[in-house]
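Q: How would the structure tokens look for this protein?
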Amino acid sequence: MENTKAKKSFQAPHTFVILVALILIAVAATYVVPAGEYTRYVDEATGRTLVEAGSFHYVDSNPVSFFSIPSLIYRAIVKAASTVTFILIIGGSFEIITSTGVLTVLCKKMSKAFNVSVDEILDNDSKGFLMNKISNTERLAGIIIKILKVIGLVFIGYIIFMIIAVIGLGTYTVVKKDNANVESSATTICSIDNKKYQIEFGTNNYFKCNNCSKKMSDEINEIVDFNNIDNSMINIENYFKNNNGTCE
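A: Here is the predicted structure in token form.
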């Protein structure tokens, strides 16, 4: 017995796979293909914007971010809203016509008018032509509806991702800020004539001097460098030394 391997027939990828692949290829091309444009002008006679021949020139590249794909798809649909709506209306109209049986009634009327049986009319070549047109239109409308659903799901997923990213970034920023405040703050206790003063300060412009008079608090606050803890500690110690005091 001879083992014969069945040849696998080529199957085209799903429509959504092709569309997504084309979108990704187009976005990736913006990082590779040099950017350029033509000079455009408004024709005074017709009022239309035309392209000036031989005016092509290169411009600075502005690659498209992969994260902006959902918003770009939405903007494209908005710009082509009239065409999308027209296709949906035509597809829906044919679906209504076929589901209500109007074509069948029309064929019966034609059979009576021309004294031809319905079977002969339906077996005519025009039947296949009309049915193919209707089928193709319905299929196109169905594909567009599926595309809109996928775009909606992608857009919702994109929004959820952005919300999670914003929350995560905000949490990270708060934690980082809190850690920075803890690491860059300091407390020292100094005394003059056996009277103790507790001084607290940090890089977030935080300053507090317990038991200090307003004059002393202002003077110490002026010598504190909120961006340099070590230097601030030295300045405070020198301040109390100059006033016959000490710091712990």
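DSSP finds eight helices and eight strands in the chain.

The mean pLDDT is 76.

Upvote if useful.
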